[in-house]
Amino acid sequence: MKTIIDRRAFLGSGTLLAGCAATTPRLGSSRADGFVRRESMRLMVGDEPYRFVGANLWYAAYLGADAPYGDRARLRRELDALAAVGVTNLRILASAEEGPLRNSIKPGFRTAGADYNQTLLAGLDFALAEMAKRGMRAVLYLTNFWEWSGGMMTYLSYVNGGRYLDMNDPAHPWPAFANFNSQFYGNAQAVALYRDWIRTVVTRTNGMTGRPYAQDPTIMAWQLANEPRPSGDEAHAKLPEFYAWVEGSAGFIKSLDPNHLVSTGSEGLKGALERADIVLAEHAPAAIDYLTVHIWPNNWGWVQQKDLASTAARGEALTDEYIAQHVTLARQLNKPMVIEEFGYPRDGGSNDPAVATTYKDRFYRRIHAATLASMQAGGPIAGTNFWAWNGEARAAHPDYKFREGDRQYMGDPPHEPQGWYGIFTGDSTVRLVADHARAIARLPR
Q: What is its EC number (predicted)?
């Protein structure tokens, strides 16, 4: 998920969630004993198509850590809640680079040296082990274009004498941050540090299960980064360096682990300077297994969160068009497609879980309808991961801002209002996710 400048007490008794538990199939539970593979435009496990309803749960390793900032009991409860509504795939942060940027989560998985945070890595072990018990699969992203987990800007600061830009710095307005970040792809020192981290995680053995990550079918895919962009504008795009980074990084992962899929983490056209040729080139390498798509109507100006009544229809039409454009691109690539981020505000742009989700639910129905139609027609869409699961968490402060030291992790990351886009336990949106899971489960195998 990106920053706002660019895209970027339970409710009642929890009856809504409880009502889903007994009726929603766990789509992945009977098929979690084999690796997911690509077969033309389909994802497969064994001789069956792999279709999924998923969520983003970036903070899973943090909850899984045996540390003051962790909460393993809550992680178990959140996984149970997600499984109860048919969620079988989670997209999880598997790297955070600790450094000077404002609004980046702490602690990180790593700093500039090789003394990595073993407690947080063990938290990732725990999360994967608990997911396996519930028949879930993981997509693990290995750095971030954006600042909220350190990311590429922090890697650059490690090797350039400490120079960096903060996102939303008034002295360096958009697209300065994204243009600065574009230096990462051609910086041999920064990319070498990134590859050191890849090697550490991809070749890791899970301390909870004793199973090497490379041999664990709980992992569906490795992802190069969260929302990598070639630059913020055309003038700063060094496309050969960007393409070389994609192909080289994906090939490096495959050399360490030939069992798992690899994806880019791209938003699609919005993360590719609105150019279809960049999307195609970025996803063309043989080591990239599927096309990723993110959809953010509010952050992209398709809707106005304070006036959803008047703007929602326009946003829905643009959403339909965006999905259709990427289905066409996926067909050109002859690869599957996953809508792995999509988010929408509550009514009036509120962050309060007591406020309704009328227009958000309409948006989810559009995504679900397009996904189901593609699956029914043998098209490329294999699954979705909504952004994001807030679950039982509640904002710690009345201004909905995240402060360093807060432990009520939500799907809304530290740089964003807490409650902005995530789904809380008890939201009506939960029922839509459960209904979508049931609809997918009824499709012919």
A: 3.2.1.78
Q: Are 269 and 262 in contact, with CB atoms under 8 Å apart?
A: no
State which H helix or E strand residue 71 sits in: none
Give residue 17's pLDDT: 53
Looking at residue 217, the DSSP 8-state letter turns out to be: T
**Cα four-point dihedral sign 72, 78, 81, 87:** negative
Q: Count H helices, E strands: the chain?
A: 12, 13
* Burial of residue 89, with CB atoms counted within 10 A of its CB: 0-12 exposed, 13-18 middle, 19 or more buried: buried
- Kindly list the strands in the beta sheet with 89-93, ordered across the sheet, starting from the edge strand earlier in the chain: 261-263, 219-223, 137-141, 89-93, 52-56, 381-386, 337-342, 291-295
| Alpha-carbon distances, residue 201 vs 108, 125, 158, 333 (angstroms) | 14, 10, 20, 29
For residue 99, pLDDT over 60 is answered with yes
- Alpha helix positions (H), 334-393: 358-376
CA distances from 231 to 135, 166, 393, 394 (A): 38, 16, 34, 35
pLDDT at 25 over 60: no
The three-class DSSP label of residue 370 is helix
| Alpha-carbon distances, residue 297 vs 271, 343, 359, 418 (angstroms) | 14, 8, 12, 18
What is the C-alpha separation between 107 and 112, in angstroms, rounded?
13
> For residue 346, how many other CB atoms are within 10 A of its CB?
25
Q: What local confidence, expressed as pLDDT, does residue 1 receive? A: 56
Query: With 90 as the cut, is the pLDDT of residue 263 above it?
Result: yes
Longest Cα–Cα distance in the chain: 57
Is the entire prediction scored with pTM above 0.85?
yes
Of the candidates 345, 385, 319, 443, the one whose C-alpha atom is nearest the C-alpha of residue 138 is 385
Instruction: Using the CB atoms, write b or e for 221-251: b if 16+ within 10 Å.
Output: bbbbbbbbbbbbeeebbebebbbebbbebbe
Work out whether strand 219-223 and strand 261-263 pair parallel, antiparallel, or are unpaired: parallel
Could you give the domains of the chain? 15-441 (3.20.20.80)
Q: What is the pLDDT of residues 323-357, one digit of tens each?
A: 999 999 999 999 999 999 999 999 999 999 999 99
Write out pLDDT tens, residues 361-406: 999 999 999 999 999 999 999 999 999 999 999 999 999 999 999 9
Considering only CA atoms, which of 114, 116, 96, 121 is closest in space to residue 106? 96
Amino acid found at 375: M
Contact between 177 and 232 (Cβ < 8 Å)? yes
Which residues are paired to 138 by β-bridges?
90, 219
The model's confidence at residue 250, banded by pLDDT at 50, 70 and 90, is very high
Structure confidence at residue 33 (pLDDT): 65
